[in-house]
Amino acid sequence: MTVQVRSVTAADGVVISVSGAIGDREAALLSRCLHAQLESEPALLVVDLSRVPSCDHTGRHVLGLVRERAEATGTELRLADLGHPDAREWLTEAGLL
Predict the structure, then answer these.
(1) How far apart, in Å, are the Cα atoms of 1 and each of 4, 10, 23, 32, 54?
(2) Over the stretch 40-80, which tens digit does the pLDDT of each residue have?
(3) What interhelical angle do 24-39 and 57-73 show, nearest 10?
(4) Distance from C-alpha of 79 to C-alpha of 71, rounded to nearest angstrom
(5) DSSP state, 52?
(6) What H or E segment, with its residue span, contains residue 82?
(7) DSSP per residue over 3-52, as a string?
(8) Measured between alpha carbons, how far is 65 from 72 in angstroms, rounded to an integer?
(9) Which end of the chain is more exposed for a tag (fewer CB within 10 A), N or C?
């Protein structure tokens, strides 16, 4: 899995693009990255999952925790470009859509 972080100055936001399957080890990396971005309390946090073919329960749990923290700090969280056919299914199962 790879993670790319881009700032969006005009929107006071951050875009995180994730590539590859998310399992236990990758979920830990993703968690550290997402929570680090939330430290600066951006107005908007976009997580692009278009290149994620699968995400196990640990990864879905991380995304759920990030959603809760974003809501608590007033950061708008968007899951974007859900182009992979299975992404909507596992995100819906996790209650993230």
Answers:
(1) 10, 28, 9, 14, 11
(2) 899 999 999 888 888 889 999 999 999 999 999 999 999 87
(3) 10
(4) 14
(5) -
(6) none
(7) EEEEEEGGGTEEEEEEES-B-HHHHHHHHHHHHHHHHT--SEEEEEEEE-
(8) 11
(9) C
